[in-house]
Amino acid sequence: MVVRNELTDDEVDRIFRALADSTRRDIVVRVLRQEQSVSALAAHYRMSFAAVQKHVAVLERASLVTKERRGREQVVHAGVATLRRAAALLADYEQIWRGRARAIEDLLAEETPPGDPGPRRKGA
Q: Judging by DSSP bridges, how do beta strands 36-37 and 73-78 pair with one another?
């Protein structure tokens, strides 16, 4: 199976580096549920406003969020399209692994003599 990747290697790297941090993952979840200003997001964390802004900037560079200026506030929205492309990439990898697991099962089934139940599992 070929992995259909709509993302460049650099984009994939930025996305998964951004998602490697628990605070950034939490920010993505929060803005998926509802858009929020950077100040509203900052109220949820025990860190400075500037630190939250830096986390949002990392997510923005990875296209996982976008910011929109509304008056004096910057409102953060989820980058749903990017999340969908990343999910599709992971689904392709999952299909590769499922195919490999099926191939191993088929190989083991071929090697089991007729009438032999095959290897026993613990508790079976």
A: antiparallel
